[in-house]
Amino acid sequence: MNSKVCGIINTADKYVVDDPNNPGEYNSTHLLKAAFSNIDCNIDDQKLSSGFIALLKLLNDIDNNENLEGDKLVEYAILWLSYKLDQKKENETTKLEDFYNKNIKTNSCYDQKINADSNSKINKSVICKKIESMNIDIKDISNFYDAFKSLCNMSSEIDANDYECNKCLENAGEFFEKCEKLKNAFDINKGSSYLQLLSSLSNDYKKFKEKYNSKCSNISLVACPRSSIIKNTLIAIAITIAIIFVAASIFLGIAYKRKAKKCKEENESLINYSGHDD
User: Which range of residues forms the domain containing residue 99?
Assistant: First the structure.
């Protein structure tokens, strides 16, 4: 689990807050100032989408030595956005792609601050493909964010200077419990988006275990008592994923190629349009 990613997500949670002057709305000004030295785009009408754009910029600026792919970073930002949208009681949008088309693509910050250049780690093509691949309800995506945040908290626990390897992890039980609920709540054989998110979460956990083992060699990870959830929940998830991995890979590969073609055409039209403006 990458501590820099978790730190940026925590910053987004801290800076994108309820607007006291507009109940039910978010204020993203502080996050935008953290991401951009000069805010020259209109943010008044699309505050949450502007916060999402700022988060993408902060994630894109993570040192390349971290070996984080743009596709994965966009996924983290989408989890955060879906969680924030789900918290809005008056949110009428249920599909992520609908919110993207209505609020993000039309946001002037998106055109001005997010690169269309394929050489950029996070660019419009990567964002477009990732959003179109998540064809499930925003509420469902937000449930995966809860588990992801628990994993980030676990990472913060072992990063603490006073952490002792023989101590149980406070957030581990919560993480295992949330993963068990996800596994039971969604039919991962039914939709590729659920499989994609669950597989991604499982991979993040494996990276966390590598980090833990590097710091606490020969000491097993132990969750603090929380419930009757079996501690090998993640093993069960990994087995489930492995059983359907081949079929899912074929399905996702076909879907990815179709979406890549569509997004490439959209980006080329944007670049051509910009060229005419010059």
Answer: 3-133
The Cα-based distances of 167 to 152, 157, 163, 219 in angstroms read 18, 10, 8, 10
For 118, list phi and psi in degrees, rounded to 5.
Answer: -65, -15
Cβ-count burial of 253 within 10 angstroms (0-12 exposed, 13-18 middle, 19+ buried)?
exposed
Total of domains in the chain: 1
Handedness of CA 166, 168, 170, 172 (dihedral sign): positive
Residue 145 lies in a domain: no
Give residue-wise pLDDT tens across range 93-105. Answer: 788 899 899 888 9
- Residue 196 domain-assigned? no
Residue with tokens 């944007």: 270
Rounded-to-5 percentages of helix, strand, coil across the chain = 65, 5, 30
What are the backbone dihedrals phi and psi of residue 92, each rounded to the nearest 5 degrees, phi first? -95, -10
For the stretch 251-267, pLDDT in tens is: 555 555 566 666 766 66
